[in-house]
Amino acid sequence: MFQFIQKKIHNHLMERKISRTRLVTKDGHCNIKFGTTEYHNHFAFLMDFWTTFVEIRWCFVIVLFVAAFTGSWFVFGLLWYSLAKSNGDLIQNPSEPYHMKCIENINSLTTAFLYSLETQTTIGYGGRALTGHCPGTVALLIIQSLMGAIINCFMCGLILAKISLPKRRAKTVTFSETAVVSLWNGNLCLQIRVANLRKTLLIGSQIYGKLLRTTITPEGDTIILDQVNVDFSVDAGKDNLFFVCPITLYHVIDKSSPFSEMCADVLQKQDFELVVFLEGTAESTSLSCQARTSYLPQEIQWGYGFLPVISRTKAGKYRVDLSNFCKTEPVVTPQCACCFQNKHNMELILHQHTCEGIDNLGFDVIDLQDSVNINEKGD
Fold first, then answer.
1. pLDDT at 259 (0 to 100)
2. Contacts within 8 Å (CB) and 24+ apart, 88-94
3. Distance between CA 130 and CA 132 in Å, rounded?
4. In the predicted structure, residue 223 carries a pLDDT above the cut 50
């Protein structure tokens, strides 16, 4: 029992250590912090206040919502109270029974706040109302009505913009937990699986990757986050994907690939981060979105392949089994890219891979007798 708890603690600490070393987390968030504030221009964020408000957290949006309306009601309540006080509406003078009031039934700050709330929200209970004898009250009524309309439009637009953020659509695009290196179409490839969890398509989808690593230039300079392009493709190319079912992304490990000098034995000892991007336009909202994830060397399995997830039922429909989405199995794979690039070794490996074959265990077998009966009926 003690060993089990110790193992769980060790695994948890390792996961936290890995998450801290990532630039991009598994769910697509960038793990970066600006350490200096010397060139941090806060005024620029205030000038672009709309983007600032859209990007802040929901808790601050709720606080801003409450503060904007409550604050405006209270400020205008003070103005209504000052007008009533300056006109003498708060003083009960028996010698002036026919005193012309600016606002009826305002005798305290509380009633002035209630009148401000009723005015801006257009409730109008009827207990408090303007008399029309004071021009200042008419002007203040116009100003508060305009300010209330502006606050309403701004807050409604802000909430709608946060609800409909394109990055929310990216939450329904998921990547496999690990990447694999195996043979595909006669090439040694790095493979990643991605799935669209919604039935609506991502129009014009594009995929690409960036390999982040620390390099030293010929001049002796150290680049901490050196970015190297990693091209990905699928069976039908790399642009305008028909993203209706889970697909596998392939990166061919050839001489131009940044993985060309790696092998199965030293892969886990490398220091790099592979960031994968998928961009597209949501079919239902016409908004562009980007889904991204990252893979560390510990999350790349050399010599493994993904299990099939697409099958076909007897009724002729296609079925997607997401339970096998991240599952892998050992397959025949060369131990290094250089070994596979040797022509003699390539022919031996491809011949062995072809002889073994790959069975799709997810397909339902249709009885041959059923197909014969169908043909006889058709004749």
1. 86
2. none
3. 6
4. yes
CA–CA dist 273, 21 (Å, integer): 9
Q: Which amino acid is at 212?
A: L
**287-336 residue pLDDT tens:** 888 888 899 988 899 889 898 888 877 777 888 888 888 888 998 888 87
Strand-pair partners of 147 = none
Contact between 91 and 108 under an 8 Å Cβ cutoff? The reply is: no
Instruction: Quote the mean pLDDT of the chain.
Output: 78
pLDDT bin (cut points 50, 70, 90) of residue 62 is very high
Place of tokens 């981060």: 273
Tokens of 333: 């794979």
Strand locations in 91-167, DSSP E? Answer: 103-104, 129-130
pLDDT of residue 57 exceeding 50, the answer is yes
pLDDT in tens, 78-125: 999 999 888 887 776 655 566 788 888 888 899 999 999 999 988 878
Residue 294 sits at the vertex; the CA angle it makes with 231 and 325, to the nearest 5 degrees, is 90
d(CA 57, CA 275): 25
The burial of 46, by beta-carbon neighbours within 10 Å (0-12 exposed, 13-18 middle, 19 or more buried), is given as exposed
Q: How far apart are CA 259 and CA 233, in angstroms?
A: 16
Cα-based angle 176, 177, 180 (whole degrees, multiple of 5)? 75
Indicate the length of the chain as a whole number. 379
Residues 7-29, buried b or exposed e (16+ Cβ, 10 A)?
eeeeeeeeeeeeeeebebebebe
The alpha carbon of 172 is separated from its chain's Cα centroid by a whole number of angstroms, namely 8
The radius of gyration of the chain from alpha carbons, rounded to an integer in Å, stands at 33
What are the strands, taking DSSP E only, across the chain?
103-104, 129-130, 173-175, 179-184, 187-196, 202-216, 222-230, 247-252, 272-282, 288-295, 300-302, 304-306, 310-312, 318-320, 328-330
Neighbouring CB atoms inside 10 A of 313's CB total 11
Block residue for tokens 């496999």? 176
**What is the pTM assigned to this prediction?**
0.66
